[in-house]
Amino acid sequence: MNKQDAKKQFDNMTEEFGIEHSFPFDIAWSFAKYVEIKGGLEKPLSFLPSEYTKEEFRVGIKDVENKMSESERSLKGKELEHFNPLKHSFAKGVYIREVFNPAGELLVTKIHKYSHPFFLLQGEMTILGEDGEKRIKAPHYGITKAGTKRIIYAHTDCIFVTVHATNETDLNKIEEEIVSKDFEDKG
After folding, report:
1. Using H for helix, E for strand and C for coil, what is the string for 114-147?
2. Cα–Cα distance for residue pair 149/124, rounded to 1 Å
3. With CB atoms counted within 10 Å of each terminal CB, which end of the chain scores lower, N or C?
């Protein structure tokens, strides 16, 4: 499907189903093409050259995040919770966070202060980070390194779980404890 037809379909389905996207069409198209061709575009993701430094990636991902959050289609509050329901569980010294990501969702992750395990329990997604792009399929587990921020595209409906060491059970305090405000915040 070419870009013009894809935009028409995107707009029609958006209107028909009353979808409020957290990203504009151009970002979704660029990322989908990047994932599909794996960097075969002349300028994948417009902000990323085929080779990029850690600093270039960080500037680029913040730019994408800012554009997504400024979009009138960006999901926030109750809308975000509706499309990305969360489940919170606690065990001794551990907070477990489960999130549902619907097929076709494009999102930018937060920056975590500490390395932690993650598990993809259902689905298939592509994760683009400072160290490149990786397509994963459930069941899958890995480690998120401290200080990383990623772009994720859900190819299918996904269930994603992260596990964080903490004695807190208050979600606001946990967020303050484990999430960095920016790349310079070392915790």
Report:
1. CCEEEEEEECEEEEEECCEEEEEECCEEEEECCC
2. 19
3. N
Residue 155, token pair as written in the block: 């190819």
Q: How far is CA 181 from CA 67, 161, 174, in A?
A: 18, 21, 13
- Sheet of strand 132-137: strand arrangement: 106-108, 151-154, 124-129, 132-137
Q: Nearest 5°: CA angle at 140, between 50 and 144? A: 60
Burial class (CB in 10 A: 0-12, 13-18, 19+), 112: buried
pLDDT at 182 over 70: yes
Residues 6+ away with beta carbon under 8 Å from 9: 1
pTM over 0.85: no
Q: Which residue has the tokens 């160290």?
A: 131
Would you give the end-to-end CA distance of the chain in angstroms? Answer: 45
The DSSP output letter for 162 is: E
The secondary element (H helix, E strand) that includes residue 106 is: strand 106-108
pLDDT at 52 over 90: no
At position 82, the amino acid (one-letter code) is: H
